[in-house]
Each structure stands twice: as structure tokens, then as C-alpha cells.
Amino acid sequence: MDKIRPRTLSGFMELLPPAQAKMELFMQTLRDSYSLYGFAPLDTPIIEDAEVLLAKGGGETEKQIYRFMKGDSDLALRFDLTVPLAKYVALNYGQLTFPFRRYQIGKVYRGERAQRGRFREFYQADIDIIGDGRLDIMSEAEIPAVIYHTFSALGLRRFCINLNNRKVLNGFFEILGLGAISGDVMRAIDRLDKIGPEKTRAMLTELGVAPDTAGEIMRFIGAAGTNAQKLNMLEAYRGKNGLFDLGLDELRAVASYLPAFGVPEEHCAINLTIARGLDYYTGTVYETTMLDYPEIGSICSGGRYDDLAAYYTDKNLPGVGISIGVTRLFFVLEEQNLLSQRIISSPSDLLVIPMTDDPAFAVACATAMRRAGIRTQVYTENKKFKAKISYADKLGVPFVAFIGQDEVDSGNMAVKDMTSGEQRSLSPQDAAGYIANELSCRRGAALIEEK
RNA sequence: GUGGGUAUAGCUCAGGUGGUUAGAGCGCUAGGUUGUGGCCCUAGAGGCCGACGGUUCGAGUCCGUUUAUCCACCCCA
Fold it and tell me: pTM of this prediction?
């Protein structure tokens, strides 16, 4: 009989158990970090009514969204977590307490061509703070702290949160008389780090920007130095444009609270080239990059927006949020070999191997170990001894307990440390203490270990 | 959506100018005798050479079509 060839669609990540164990730890670390800052967990359906998801319509979203009919229902898979959040907040407005702080980690779908590090199904890990009518600048100032803590908790050290403000950029363009093409100009300067100053200048010229104006833009966005020095440079433009002045005040406020939030300046820098492609950002924007892997691009992006749910409600709901591309980041970390080898990725801490015809004592030992919190499985297949211990070896189970006739007679367990090869005969109670103690010494390794 | 590359064992890949039973490494299975894994040795299983069509006495190899996949661009996480 012909078999159907098993296959997984391109662009869909499917991991083997050891890698999946690390992925789970990754996401648990994110959950713990987000919740430490007072964000509430939220989940929403993967499938929504197409009319709801495509409320905004047009553009890339329309082209990339998975959409299908089920009977008479026009359905679509969510392509991010922000649109479902907007719907959720509009729908449950009366029952939510504002500012509404939620985190959500979930799969999203984009029907585009998959390639290296680009997936069609991937996890996003979002946090957002939604205000009712207004939202203080302090929420924008707090976001870098959450990003900093989250990546630090993962074990990442070599990263930088880039800060900018859309009002500063748009105000600056208005000062230069480029207000009409600010979107195109922003797109051009956003690519500075990727294509270099010459090509950026050429793009500006193509847009019809006069040479000396282009020069001023290049000087402006290329500003170097500390955050304080960059803010001083910006002060030179104060008084020429209301929007710019407002943005400068916001940027200054966000930067000034970094120390109180515990964010070191070397991890959070004003970068005037950061524009973000998404057009709904209206204030602070964030983009986090790994210092040793700039080619990867942003691993966490977000910003301030003025009206989250305008398509669903008349309520004005300004907010600020960020998204970590979990699947891409995990893929890159694995590819760069930055995931710690010290993480215990075994599904069990202990494998109990019965060697007598009646496994009752072995099962009783396993029960005692589980009561002590030790993740335990019993090997019950009737195979040769070698195959049994090899099973533990392949799974990376750190401890094995042999239960043969000697053990049944003595009431002890023969506990072997698979790393050292050392073996000792212990009562179940002593064995539980020994294993738990050893494990606690080995746990706690960070997920990411930079070279 | 645009441009380029690649499809041979479970995985990574060899297979000059067409020529008999298509190979390697890793992995897998079984041995190397009794209650000790990793290393080593031996043996074995496993392929309609992506699919369809063409050229030819003969195609894994050449040509066409198609599908899948990868890379780059666009855009993004």
C-alpha cells in the first residue's frame, strides 16, 4: 500500500523534544518576566471573522492573511496579536480596568514566502498597556525596563534597545518642508544601518530631497554620543515646530527615567534612524538588536499608538506595546549555537529500571520519587539490560535507579549518576534527597549563553 | 508578487563527457554471553534517483513541463 509521505509545511517550525524543552523554558521565562511587571495573561482565538481581522484593510495584511470559507462563514487566521487585542478591548471595554496591561504569547500566521528565519506560523510574545482616553508618558518609559529585564532573564547580555520618537522625526521633516513625503523619507532613513549612508542619501535624492537638506537629514540621524548629547543636539531645533517640541519632551522623559527603572544606558540608546515601518506608531518607538548579530535585525519591536481600536469603537484607546518574535529569535539562537547546553532538556530526572520479574518495588520507588517532586519514569519494556540504560542515555536522563533482586531484598535503590558514572545504594528517602540536591545544583542555568 | 539555485537512503551529501546489481558518513536494528550507557569492532535493514513527458539501443546523468524546497528582493517578528 502506498504511504502518504509525512511532511510539515514550509515555514512551520516543528522541533524535536530536546529543542522543544528549551522553547518551553524560553516562553516560560517570558511569561514570568511579563507578569513580574504586572501584565495579565490573555488568550484570544487563532481564527476570527475575516471582517474583524481585516477591518483596517489594504496593504500587506490583505495579501498575507490566511483566509478561507467554512460554509457561509468568511474566516481568517490572525496575523498578529494587536488586532485581536483591539477587538478584545473594544468588545470588553465595560468590564476591563484601565490602564489595561496584558501579555499574550501565541501563534500568528502570515501567508508569505518562507525563508531563512522567516516563518508562516510563528509565536509572538506581546505586551501592551492600553489607556482609556489618555495614557501617561510613564508607560512609554516603563517599556524599556520590561524589555531589558526580559532579555536579561533569558541570559542575553549583548543587546541594545534603540529608542526614538515619531513626533521628533515627523516634526523634523515638517521643519525641513518634507511633511508631505515624511513616510517615504522615514522608510529611507530606517534602512541606514542596513544599506549605509551613501545609498540612504541616494534614496533621499530620488525622493526629490534637495542636496543640502539631505545633508542635514544625514547629520541629524547620524548623531553620535550619549543620550544626553543627542538630546542636546535636538534642542537646537526647539521652537520651530510644535510636534517636534512635544516629541523631544517625550523622548527626554523616557530617557530620563531609565536609571530609576534599572536600565543601564549601554543597553538603551537613542537612535534617530529607528522609524519602524508600521504606520500606526505616533510616539516613542522601540527596536532591540543583538550587538553581535546586527544582520538579524530587530528581535523586539514596538511603540506608542494613539487609537488602538478605532475600527471597532468610538472610544479613544491610546496604548503602547511591544512584540518579541519568539520563533525567529529562537531559530537564530539555535543557529548561532547560543542556547545553553547545560539546560536539562530531558523529560525526566530519573529513570527507574526494574530487573526482576515483578516490578512492584520499582514502581513503588518511582511513586516515592514523584512524591518528592522528582520527575520519574519507569522503563517497563522487556529488553536487554543494555537497551534499558541506553534509553536513559539517549534521553539525557541524569539519574538511573536499578531495581534488581538485591534491591528488592535490601529495600534500597541503586542510584547511578549518569554524568559521573558514580553509583550508590540508598534507601528511597535518602535517594530522593540525594537526587533533589544534585538537581538543584545543576538547574538555574540561563537559556542563552553568549560566547 | 519578482529574480536565482536545488531535488539521490530517516539526515547530510558523493555519483567526469549517458552504459550492467546506485554509494559514503551519521542515524537505525542486531551481535561482541549473566546487573551497567557514551567509545570501538562486526553484520543487517533501508532508494520507482521529486512527478510527468521527450531524445536514445540504453537516462540518476541530456531536454521540456510541473510540483516541492532553499536563497535574495519586497515587507516584516
Answer: 0.92
